[in-house]
């Protein structure tokens, strides 16, 4: 219905324009004054949620996995157990290393006392220097063995601490690369956890807005999953590579997600708000050649004639176009009927009397 009305109106205007011009009568138009107003650009883009960052968890044991109580897509809390290993061999090694440390500690005490006796006898010329030297060597060897046993004990204690793998962050399981019963090795990648405390909205924005989007700009994102909410964030980073098919680039919006409701893959729409500025603007519809290299408007003169004038344009925001030169504040531009006007046509506008209001 709307399209039919528009076509009818434009047809009437075209007919009236031709008749009025032929009869030397003014052509009916509507005009709007150019005004200085606040222009705040809103840049939209759809996309989906991605995790803020990824933590890769690796194995620290050469041991058999007993349990992996999480699966792909599970939301996990910091400190939650993600995998558990069989600790029986580690416990046995720990006990053996404790006994070795105790035994060698006792042996060192005995060798220390023995060395003291030999040294005392040697001072009294009652002992052999050879015995003193042998005793010193034995004590040195025992201390070396104790150092190795102590290191092995510490490693056993560390291994025991590693038999439970816990999540270092609140997040979501992105990959699970280990199963119960498997033998893992030190350095082996086991799980990947995505951080959810802060997430990224990867919004696809049309290429003509590439130079309008900047890091730090405020953004608001809505999700069909949460229809009555708007999630505030800011532009974190911009991928300037243009998709050759969609002609879009990706803008990443950082959003705080303390309750972990936003999950990777969730679709939404982002509105990036570029700081407003006071600028001279007119309705975009007034421009007769908006997509060409040069832009023109019809200006309603005080003498009742329409003058075709070249203008230079700037930002386009919410159906308003910034005029950077070629037009003064308060001048009236034709917004209805301009498509059928010619330069210097007589016009009649019902809003002309309000041009300075």
Layout of secondary structure:
Elements: H1 2-23, E1 27-28, E2 30-33, E3 35-51, E4 54-58, E5 63-67, E6 75-76, E7 81-85, H2 88-123, H3 129-161, E8 164-166, E9 171-176, E10 183-184, E11 189-195, E12 198-206, E13 218-223, E14 226-239, E15 248-256, E16 267-283, E17 295-300, E18 305-317, E19 320-325, E20 332-336, E21 345-348
Parallel strand pairs: 1-21
Antiparallel strand pairs: 2-20, 3-12, 3-16, 4-11, 5-7, 5-10, 6-9, 7-8, 9-11, 12-15, 13-14, 13-16, 14-15, 16-19, 17-18, 17-20, 18-19, 18-21
Can you characterise this structure?
The strands form three sheets. A six-stranded antiparallel beta barrel has the order 3-12-15-14-13-16. Strands 4-11-9-6 form a four-stranded antiparallel sheet, with no helix packed on it. The chain has a four-stranded antiparallel sheet with strand order 8-7-5-10, with no helix packed on it. Strand 17 and strand 18 (305-317) form a beta hairpin. It has 357 residues and is α+β, with helices and mostly antiparallel strands. Among the domains are: 23-40 and 277-354, Beta Barrel (conserved putative lor/sdh protein from methanococcus maripaludis s2 fold); 87-162. The longest helix has 36 residues, at 88-123. It contains three helices and 21 strands. It is rod-shaped, with a radius of gyration of 40 Å.
């Amino acid at each position: 219905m709307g399209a039919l009305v528009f076509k009818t109106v434009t047809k009437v205007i075209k007919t009236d324009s031709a008749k009025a011009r032929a009869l030397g009568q003014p052509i009916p138009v509507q005009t709007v004054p150019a005004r200085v107003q606040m222009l705040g650009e809103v840049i939209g883009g759809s996309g989906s949620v991605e995790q803020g960052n990824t933590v890769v968890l690796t194995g620290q044991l050469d041991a058999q996995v007993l349990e992996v109580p999480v699966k792909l897509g599970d939301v996990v809390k910091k400190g939650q157990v993600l995998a558990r290993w069989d600790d029986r061999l580690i416990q046995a090694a720990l006990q053996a290393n404790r006994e070795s440390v105790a035994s060698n500690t006792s042996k060192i005490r005995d060798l220390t006392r023995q060395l003291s006796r030999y040294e005392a006898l040697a001072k009294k010329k009652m002992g052999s220097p050879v015995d003193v030297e042998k005793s010193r060597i034995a004590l040195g060897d025992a201390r070396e063995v104790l150092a190795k046993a102590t290191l092995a004990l510490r490693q056993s204690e560390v291994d025991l601490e590693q038999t439970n793998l816990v999540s270092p962050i609140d997040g979501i399981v992105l990959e699970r690369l280990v199963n119960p019963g498997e033998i893992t090795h030190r350095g082996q990648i086991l799980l990947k956890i995505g951080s959810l405390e802060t997430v990224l909205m990867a919004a696809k924005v049309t290429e003509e807005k590439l130079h309008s989007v900047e890091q730090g700009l405020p953004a608001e994102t809505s999700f069909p999953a949460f229809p009555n909410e708007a999630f505030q964030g800011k532009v974190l980073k911009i991928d300037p590579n243009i998709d050759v098919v969609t002609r879009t680039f990706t803008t990443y919006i950082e959003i705080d997600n303390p309750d972990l409701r936003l999950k990777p893959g969730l679709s939404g729409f982002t509105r990036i708000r570029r700081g407003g500025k006071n600028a001279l603007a007119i309705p975009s519809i007034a421009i007769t050649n908006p997509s060409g290299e040069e832009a023109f408007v019809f200006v309603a003169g005080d003498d009742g004639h329409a003058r075709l004038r070249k203008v230079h344009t700037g930002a386009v925001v919410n159906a308003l176009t910034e005029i950077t030169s070629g037009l003064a504040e308060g001048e009236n531009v034709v917004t209805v009927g301009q498509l059928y006007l010619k330069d210097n046509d007589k016009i009649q506008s019902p809003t002309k009397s309000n041009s300075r209001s």
